[in-house]
């Protein structure tokens, strides 16, 4: 294997000059640089990253911890897809930088996270990204102050820089669009109460009603997701039955996610109700394998996971390149929120002509 001395001999320069060309830490004439680069190409010389890292204290490595790789990602199910899309967004942003992304998977075991962090630190990564499978609060081991950390799809109690979905805005925009389409009796089948996203989306639902001057009806808001209980569909059937038997029943059912909307479609059809002719349905997440293949296609809100990954990578790269930016990001303690558009499809009927408010709407006829 060729050494720096072999390159220097062939280029007829000193080893120190070759080092200057490699590290860019001192001026070198154009002809000398070209001679050194030609010699390296001829000899197939590969610089030692380890040696360079020892000199510059920079590894060019970024560590990413996720559970996306080990989770089953069957094309018909959303399980595991959110964090996988986030990872893809991170990789996309990193590809345009000079950093190398190293990915470690938790194997579904959160107790492995401290070990993985320490492993990355031993490899002298310049920054870390932790990706969660859904919007949640996490508690991670402290990392050295000189190693930037960014959280994606999660947050902690100490204000670590984070990138999160704007769940409240997403639900507010959806309900506002339904109101603009003439709906006034808008039911909301929520996620489980303990989920962070549920609290935010429910707030967005009420916010949109208040902005339109529509009184909120508690009878139109019930949990529709029961964490995979065997009788989940039966409970959901009974919930919808109660709502449809109200003196003034809902004209549209907003579902906490697209997976729930699939169940709702089935329940409504079992009751002989046509979507959207007799009742409209909307979802959340924009899992396209579901939303676009349902009949009629599902109106839903896009959870922009890939964009979250891009923003997380950009935030980390900025923190790595600028220590002042890193300090500012840590001091702000305010997460970056990423919102997605409403995808307006055939599952919701327009009850009357109405000008659409200034929302970002994607229409798919």
Topology, element by element:
Layout: H1 4-11, H2 15-23, H3 30-43, H4 49-56, E1 61-66, H5 81-95, E2 100-105, H6 113-122, E3 127-137, E4 149-155, E5 162-165, H7 167-180, E6 186-190, H8 196-211, E7 221-223, H9 232-244, E8 252-255, H10 258-270, E9 280-282, H11 288-291, E10 300-301, H12 305-321, H13 323-332, E11 336-338, E12 342-344, E13 361-363
Helix pairs in contact: 1-2, 1-3, 5-12, 7-8, 12-13
Characterization of the model:
The structure is a single chain. The protein folds into three domains: 4-56, lambda repressor-like DNA-binding domains (434 Repressor (Amino-terminal Domain)), CATH 1.10.260; 61-160 and 305-338, Response regulator (Rossmann fold), CATH 3.40.50.2300; 167-303 and 342-363, Response regulator (Rossmann fold, 3-Layer(aba) Sandwich). The chain contains 13 helices and 13 strands. The N and C termini lie far apart (62 Å). By secondary structure, the chain is α/β, with parallel strands linked by helices. The radius of gyration is 26 Å and the shape is elongated. Helix 1 packs across helix 2, helix 5 crosses helix 12 and helix 12 packs across helix 13 (323-332). Strand 8 (252-255), helix 10 and strand 9 form a beta-alpha-beta unit. The protein has helices at residues 4-11, 15-23, 30-43, 49-56, 81-95, 113-122, 167-180, 196-211, 232-244, 258-270, 288-291, 305-321, 323-332; strands spanning 61-66, 100-105, 127-137, 149-155, 162-165, 186-190, 221-223, 252-255, 280-282, 300-301, 336-338, 342-344, 361-363. The strands form three sheets. It has a six-stranded parallel beta sheet, sandwiched between helices. 40% of the residues are buried. Helices cover 41% and strands 16% of the residues. Mean pLDDT is 88; it is low at 73-80 and 353-358.
């Amino acid at each position: 294997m060729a050494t720096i001395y072999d390159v220097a001999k062939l280029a007829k320069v000193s080893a120190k000059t070759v080092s200057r060309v490699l590290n860019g830490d001192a001026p070198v004439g154009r002809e000398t640089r070209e001679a050194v680069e030609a010699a390296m190409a001829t000899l197939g010389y590969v610089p030692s990253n380890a040696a360079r890292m020892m000199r510059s204290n920079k590894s060019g490595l970024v560590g990413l911890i996720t559970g996306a790789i080990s989770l089953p990602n069957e094309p018909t199910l959303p399980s595991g897809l959110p964090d996988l899309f986030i990872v893809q967004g991170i990789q996309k942003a990193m590809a345009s930088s000079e950093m190398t992304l190293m990915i470690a998977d938790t194997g579904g075991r959160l107790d492995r996270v401290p070990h993985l962090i320490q492993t990355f630190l031993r490899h002298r990564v310049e920054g870390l990204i932790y990706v969660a499978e859904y919007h949640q609060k996490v508690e991670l081991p402290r990392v050295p102050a000189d190693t930037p950390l960014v959280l994606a799809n999660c947050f902690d109690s100490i204000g670590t820089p984070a990138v999160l979905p704007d769940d409240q805005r997403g639900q507010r925009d959806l309900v506002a669009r339904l109101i603009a389409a003439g709906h006034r009796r808008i039911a909301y089948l929520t996620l489980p109460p303990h989920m962070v996203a549920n609290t935010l989306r429910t707030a967005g639902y009420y916010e949109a009603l208040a902005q339109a001057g529509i009184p909120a009806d508690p009878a139109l808001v019930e949990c529709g997701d029961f964490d995979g209980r065997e009788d989940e569909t039966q409970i959901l059937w009974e919930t919808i039955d109660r709502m449809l038997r109200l003196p003034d029943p809902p004209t549209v059912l907003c579902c906490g996610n697209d997976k729930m909307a699939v169940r709702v479609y089935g329940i409504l059809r079992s009751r002989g109700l046509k979507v959207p002719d007799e009742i409209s349905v909307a979802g959340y997440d924009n899992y396209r394998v579901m939303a676009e293949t349902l009949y009629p296609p599902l109106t839903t809100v896009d959870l922009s996971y890939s964009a979250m990954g891009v923003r997380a990578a950009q935030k980390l790269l900025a923190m790595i390149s600028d220590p002042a930016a890193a300090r500012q990001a840590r001091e702000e303690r305010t997460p970056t929120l990423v919102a997605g558009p409403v995808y307006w499809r055939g599952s919701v009927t327009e009850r009357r002509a109405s000008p659409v408010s200034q929302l970002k709407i994607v229409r798919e006829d």
